[in-house]
From TrEMBL:
Its cofactor is Fe cation. It is an enzyme of class 1 (oxidoreductase). This is Superoxide dismutase [Fe]. Residues 367-469 form the Manganese/iron superoxide dismutase C-terminal domain. Belongs to the iron/manganese superoxide dismutase family. PROSITE patterns: SOD_MN. Residues 1-30 form the signal peptide. Residues 274-359 form the Manganese/iron superoxide dismutase N-terminal domain. It comes from Skeletonema marinoi. The keyword Oxidoreductase applies. InterPro entries: Chalcone_isomerase, Chalcone_isomerase_3-sand, Chalcone_isomerase_sf, Mn/Fe_SOD, Mn/Fe_SOD_BS, Mn/Fe_SOD_C, Mn/Fe_SOD_N, Mn/Fe_SOD_N_sf.
Length: 516
């Protein structure tokens, strides 16, 4: 009887949490509280079709169930997919799989269905290393965590001694820090010699022999513990090889999004791209950028890039329709094999990003908060950053873009000027801010006086709020920027609702675990 009462109280708490979160985050666009995720944001990419389990943020994959990021690469290994591991309603951890690129070739031409995973599992046997990163989202004790993983591996192998060894390694590694708390990273390297190397938060614990294949099967076979992970792998690794004689494409490593064809970045090419609306009126950037210049820039130049991409994709065959804008912009192989498509697609990406880097009101001046702090750390001062971007822009030969980006490997901000349709994503740098240095962006207003154009951009136009949210995404910090916006504009009632929802969720989870 007591157990039933706890179940009812847990259900009520979860319902209250869902209601509060729904009121805060998923009200209609006509409401003052718009959706938390902005599909038009170049830094946010939702999963495609029915694949609602992952998203792209600045080049990395994000498990949308937990909001946990996974970098594109782990050393020389590439990311194949991500997903959540659940126990009932509890999101215990997110998993990401890394391996070498060769295994992807076996599935690149296969249709997007679960049978492709069988082919992939066979190919992974010849890979030197396949790594699974388990990033904790919920606190689990050392013994319980070790038991859970061992129980998943056990039915997939006859070597019970090896399973027991794996269990002890996990328990010893997690026990060293008390428990597998949120943020803890368990790494399992499945090696070609059949062993599984275990590390916790980067510290090696030891190896268990003969379990490489069974451990991979825990996540990849038909009874894999994370359906979302399996679907993500299929989406990212299958149906991406080019069959067109006129266009060669690289294998895609990310999911695409078709949230709305007007939101061109990350959208699938099943629908033709449409010219996105500007976030301000054509006269909003005056006197720095005239209405005449902005209209020509947006309605003529940007529109032409979109028209060209639609034409090239239409001529390129079905394989191109599975590529997102993000995938094209990051593909070195596509840049070499289909330069015209690459350049026009990159220009679509760059322009949407550039237009959002400016504000029709309240722009310019100096940044604040995390961005200001990071700029001081990496450049000494904001003035130093501004001088570097100005100098790089003025000295650049021909047309191009001057980027402020975040190097995730070096964990610092960097400035780079790239000619033509250059985008730092292709080098693994996450865009934070950009200045368009193509002549059509400034020549009608400034002729060859680039310096005056750049000064006007910094003094009156730059949208530091947007740049800061890009940095937070790149660094994996903070909550969804739109939530920050709503809290700042709608006050403490929203904060109270979010806190109450979180408390209700924790109460429900605690009750459920009491019964298990």
């Amino acid at each position: 009887m007591a157990a039933k009462k706890r179940t009812r109280r847990a259900a009520a708490s979860l319902s209250m949490a869902a209601l509060l979160i729904g009121l805060c985050c998923f009200s209609s666009s006509s409401s003052p509280l718009a959706p938390m995720v902005d599909a038009a944001d170049p830094k946010t990419f939702l999963g495609t079709n029915n694949h609602k389990f992952w998203s792209l943020r600045g080049g990395s994959l994000v498990d949308t169930a937990t909001k946990i990021n996974f970098d594109d690469n782990l050393g020389s290994l590439s990311l194949y997919g991500v997903g959540v591991r659940k126990k009932g309603p509890i999101k215990v951890y997110s998993v990401g799989m890394y391996s070498d690129e060769s295994a992807k070739s076996s599935t690149a031409s296969l249709p997007k269905n679960k049978s492709a995973l069988t082919t992939l599992r066979k190919s992974l046997k010849s890979s030197k290393t396949t790594t699974f990163l388990l990033k904790m989202n919920f606190k689990v004790g050392a013994e319980k965590m070790a038991d859970a993983i061992a129980e998943s591996v056990d039915p997939r192998t006859s070597d019970k001694g090896a399973v027991e060894s794996l269990k002890k390694l996990i328990m010893n590694g997690v026990s060293a820090k008390g428990a597998a708390t949120p943020g803890t990273i368990l790494q399992f390297d499945c090696l070609s010699d059949g062993s599984v190397k275990v590390s916790v938060d980067g510290k090696a614990v030891g190896s268990a022999s003969g379990l490489s294949e069974p451990f991979c099967d825990v996540f990849l076979d038909d009874n894999g513990v994370s359906p979302a992970f399996r679907e993500s792998v299929v989406e990212n690794c299958c149906g991406v090889a080019s069959t067109s004689s006129s266009s060669a494409t690289s294998t895609a490593t990310h999911s695409s999004s078709s949230h709305n064809p007007i939101h061109i970045i990350g959208s699938l090419f099943y629908h033709k791209l449409k010219l996105p609306k500007l976030p301000y009126k054509y006269n909003a950037l005056q006197p720095i950028i005239s209405e005449k210049t902005l209209r020509a820039h947006h309605l003529k130049h940007n529109a032409k890039y979109i028209e060209t991409v639609n034409q090239l994709v239409g001529e390129g065959g079905a394989s191109l329709k599975h590529l997102s804008m993000e995938q094209i912009v990051k593909s070195k192989a596509l840049k070499e094999s289909n330069t015209v498509l690459y350049n026009n697609a990159a220009q679509c990406w760059n322009h949407l990003f550039f237009f959002r880097c400016m504000s029709g009101s309240g722009g310019g001046g100096e940044p604040k908060g995390l961005l200001a702090k990071t700029i001081r750390r990496d450049f000494g001062s904001f003035d130093n950053l501004r001088k570097e971007m100005e100098s790089s822009s003025i000295k650049a030969f021909g047309s191009g873009w001057t980027w402020l980006g975040y190097d995730k490997k070096e964990k610092k901000l960097v400035v780079s000027t790239m000619t033509g349709a250059g985008n730092p994503l292709i080098e693994g740098i996450i865009p934070i801010l950009v200045i368009d240095m193509w002549e059509h962006a400034y020549y009608l207003d400034y002729q060859d006086n680039r310096k005056e154009y750049i000064n006007g951009f910094f003094d009156r136009l730059v949208n530091w709020k947007y740049a800061q949210q890009n940095l937070k995404h790149a660094m994996g910090k903070g909550i969804v920027p739109e939530t920050v916006h709503h809290v700042s504009h709608h006050g403490l009632p929203l904060v109270a609702a979010l806190v109450s929802a979180n408390l209700a969720k924790k109460t429900a989870v605690h009750m459920l675990f009491q019964q298990s």
